[in-house]
Amino acid sequence: MRVVIQRVSEASVTIDGVVKSAIGKGFMILLGIEAIDTKEDADWLCQKISALRVFSDEAGLMNLDIKQVEGEMLVVSQFTLHASYKKGNRPSFIRAARPEQAIPLYEYFVAQLNIAIGKPVATGSFGADMKVSLVNDGPVTITMDTQNKE
C-alpha cells in the first residue's frame, strides 16, 4: 500500500458536481493498493498515520497527532500511485490491485482508521471520477509505502 498524506486546513471530494465528502483541519489521504497488499499492511499504515505527529503544538513545533488536534481524515482511492513509468511515456498500472481485491482492502483501511481516531473518516467513491480539492497546510506532505517500512 502506498499513501500520500497531506496536512490540510480543508479538503473535499466532488462527484458529478455534488460534494460527496468534506473535512476541515486534518489529513487528506490518497491510497494506492497493490496486488500484493494485505490487511497487515493496512493495519501498519493506520497505526503510523493515526500517530503521525505533524500538527503544531503551542510552541509552533510539529508535535501533535491528529487525535490531539481533533482533526478529520478524508481517504481517496488512487490506483495511479502505483504507476510504472520506466518504459515510454504512457504509465502502466499493472501493479495496482484489481477492484475485487482493492475494494475490500480499501474499506478495511477506512474502518481501521475510524477505530484508530475514534470518529468517522470521510471518503471518496472507489473507482469514480472524482474532483479533489484541498488547501495544504504548511505545506506538509508525507508519503508512506508498506513495501518500504524500514
TrEMBL record:
It is found in: Cytoplasm. InterPro entries: Daa-tRNA_deacyls_DTD, DTD-like_sf. GO terms for molecular function: D-tyrosyl-tRNA(Tyr) deacylase activity; Gly-tRNA(Ala) deacylase activity; Ser(Gly)-tRNA(Ala) hydrolase activity; tRNA binding. It catalyses: glycyl-tRNA(Ala) + H2O = tRNA(Ala) + glycine + H(+); a D-aminoacyl-tRNA + H2O = a tRNA + a D-alpha-amino acid + H(+). The keyword RNA-binding applies. The keyword NAD does not apply. One of its GO terms (biological process) is D-amino acid catabolic process. A Gly-cisPro motif from one monomer fits into the active site of the other monomer to allow specific chiral rejection of L-amino acids. Homodimer. Belongs to the DTD family. This is D-aminoacyl-tRNA deacylase. The gene is dtd.
